[in-house]
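ok so heres the complex, four chains, lmk if somethin looks off
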Amino acid sequence: MKRRIPLAIVFIFGVLGAIPFLIPHRIIQNADNEFRSSILRIIVAFSLVLGVGSIIRHHFQKIRRKKENWQYSYITLIALVISAIIGLFGGIDARGMLPTQFTVPFTEYVFRFDIQTLYTNIMVPLAATMFSLLAFFMTSAAYRAFRARNVEATILLLSAFVVMLAAVPLVSSFFPKLSAFSEWILTVPNTAAKRGLLFGIALGSMATSLKIILGIERGWLGGTS
Amino acid sequence: MITSILIVFTQLEIFRKISWKKNRFMKTTFLLIFLTGLSFAISPPTDVRAWDSPNDAGGSINIAWRISPDDPMLDGYEISRLAEGAADYEPIGFIGKTRNSYTDEETRDGVKYQYRVAAVKDTIMVYSEPSNYVQSSSQWFNTDRINVLVFATLFIFLILWFTSRAKKGMSLFIRKIAGLDAVEEAVGRATEMGRPILYIPGLSTMADVATIAGLNILGEVAKKTAQYDTKIIVPNRDPIVYTVAREVVKESYTQVGRPDAFNPDSVFFVTDSQFAFAAAVDGIMTREKPATNFFMGYFWAESLIIAETGASTGAIQIAGSDAVMQLPFFITACDYTLIGEELYAASAYLSREPLLLGALKGQDYGKAVIIGVLLAATLLALIANLPVLRLF
Amino acid sequence: MSGEPWIWVGAIFTLFIFSFLYKENPFYRFAEHLFVGVANGYMITFYWHRILVPALINPVSHGERLWLIAVAFVGALYFTRFIPRISWLVRIPIALVMGYSSGAYIPRGIDAYIIEQTRATVITRSTFVNWQQGLWALIILFGVIATVSYFFFSRERKGIIKPLSYIGIVFIMLGFGASFGYSVMARISLFIGRIQFLLRDWLGLIH
Amino acid sequence: MKFFEALMKIDRRILYLVLAAVVIIPFIFPFMIHPKAMPPVENLYNYIDSIPQDKALVISVDYTPDTEPELHPMTIALLRHAFTRRIKVGVLCIGVLGLGLAENALNQVAGEFNQRATSKADSIIYGRDYVFWGWQTPVLTVILGMGERISRVFTVDYYNNQTETLPMMKQIKNYNNVGILVSVSASASPGWYITYGQTSFGVKVGIASTAVQAADWYPYLNSGQATGMLSGMKGGAEYEELVQTNLGITDRRRATEAMASQTSAHFAIIVFILIGNIGYFVLRRRKK
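and the predicted structre for the whole thing:
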């Protein structure tokens, strides 16, 4: 029973998902639209519970079991609660019940802490800087790891050189031939290779979707028990 | 057409001679004649026809006509509609010149409509003959998408056919994957040098096909390390993948008859943060100095850090991933790389698991179909010049 | 030098993350954990204000579409994930969403990835509008067939498949080289963006 | 041979300092580079330029702060182009973490135009010239829903106004009123718009992608499913160049500004790869 019901649901809704593309009739289209805009949207909204819930549980367990760096879990939980309160009650454009700004006494500076300010001044710098580290890792990997160790890697590095040089605006304005060659590599061999890979990936993901609907692939069942 | 231009030209000449101030009445009457004269010059669009828009949910009718011979002079065309039982035509749309079709999307299904198109120049409108009667309706099957239905049924058949054969235990041939010889040789090297092997089953979750493939290959590698009594280190980023990985390694050790040699601490959970995990793995690589590193599964940008440190410690590195974005780094930083589907094929080849074998064979034949269609369509198009593209 | 305190907060966090380059340290860990907290708080805000309120709470509170309550009940089954005894119930909403998404993907995936891409690779006489266009189209057709044959596992690599798959790997390497060359620019520009923030918005050295 | 040994053993942190220096120096001695637009960038520019008055440009802001430096200048350039040409603009986000960036971009560009505006006619007014629909989920509901009726997917916009009541929405009902939908993305969202939006409703899709993914979108350019593409910061700089030369917009161009550092950083990376490989081959030959 614990397996048969989910597998039946996944099959029924799998068929319901595919039909509207082939049947344009108004009845089917209206039903599909209604399903998507109300039922699917609400259920997916609740799925946030899974995401946020598992993060909260993960950090709680880390604190309870005093795993390594458990003190930092407090920061995540406190930050989550505070930003959720500011967002939920302060409102998206700071028009909610909770006041999200105050003027510093003796000055006319207004200190705002609404959700958009938190986003722009905490999330953007942290996330952007986290990813900008990659420039450094790229630099040291270029020096220590990127070797023409076999024929394939050699072809890859040669093609990369041409595209890398042409990606530099200074070079492409002095050597239009080079940027034309780089554009050729991108529009002809690269298109052929990526299209060939695309066929493989598309067939693979379709086979996986098919196996899920037909109940052959049951990994997603086991993973949640 | 030429006669109308001559008429217009002579009228202009006369008009110019009468100076405006002297005789206002004469001028205005002449202007009127002049303008109506123009209307004779415009001929209306012809052959107006209308039909229910195909493959739709109803409520729309297509109208087409042959543009008026005086088209370059026109401002455009106005389309008007006469509903069944309505008093008169009501204008429903205006469209620029040179255009010869329009779609009326506000029709009610089951009501008969008739259309006519007017050539418009400033205030002059010349109507065409009315079109045929037409009703809009919605269709139960979209005939444009038959090709999708054909390929879908074919593909479903292929997958089901091969999966059922695999389940019945019939042997499905898969060629040996070149990368797997490299695995054999790499484990042997680590044993000779008496140094550990590092195996990372990707950073993704159990729902990811690449993680499942990574764990299958981990099972095989663990069997070899059990036989040669080589130390194996398996750091994980996902708690669930960690528990499954430990079971896989334990199972491999017992299968080879060496359950006592299995050290539970060899498989461990590090952290779920992407870069902290990479930093921790770097620490292990520099401390333990493994002779061979395996990266089998799905990776993100942190693959750069891991592969780079591994290369600098001089270890042999074998990677396998379907993360297309990270493959270029693996290819240049590792000794051997399983590209995309080779990872799935390797895990199917090693595990002989019917589910993986069936799907892989089905996809292989899907590829054969695509290549076949490509070649056939191109040959037909080039040699017999058939309008092949309408098939797609 | 910027007087806005929030710009200082952003700059300090930027330096915290850059400290990871020296070695993994408490500042980096603090910044990373803070980010996970604020990001989830931000998501909760929008899921509530822009989805649950307009799609569920407003209609139901006005007494319309009361069947939405049943839908909300199915959605609430996600909570059972954390209640051991009945945690299998979470499979029902997952099955619904996963089933519908898989079903919606298959026909459209076939249309967009298989049929459209095949149509674009087929060569007709009109492709030879000029010799260059025709030649490139021929190379693309040949390259696609070679790449696909590299990933063909049902036959030993003998006969025609052997040379074909070798040429296939050459195409694949050219393709990966192109991606690799471009990705260097991508990673660098992320770092340049942060330098622009530090030098202009924070220190005001450049304008 | 000592030299080669030392050459191969440069510490990682020295390389980091070299990269930092190589990026910062061009900011102290800035030299402006005007990149020539490549065909995919020009195609997108020309297509957007030709959008008729009764159609809108839709920008899907599908990136997160992670790739803000690379993609944000593109959103800004697209908005400047549309507002100068008085093309109606609709902005939405597939991912919730893109909302803040979309709002910052709209406030910035609308502010630039309204500062210069003299009358109500040539200023940028919310609801008339542009609408910020905000975010909805899941992807299927958004992309397929916009084919039927946009105001049914986004019943309320980002600022909680009823979408139906906004003047622009009387004219922009669904994809039939969309000239082109440009997905500014660091993920696979352009592919979703092609797979779901284009197959079912035939909407034109333009791509503005990070350089990491740009090469993977070329098959869609070749097949005509994508109508032009901006790739990476260089693509952004090229579009800024077109916007400035054709429309005379002279506001700050973040992407072009970075081209100098981009140039020097690329040379540094190429030199490192060369050194690495030379050292590798010398040592390998000596080992044989």
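quick notes: Residues 212 and 220 of chain A are 9 Å apart (CA to CA). thats all i got rn
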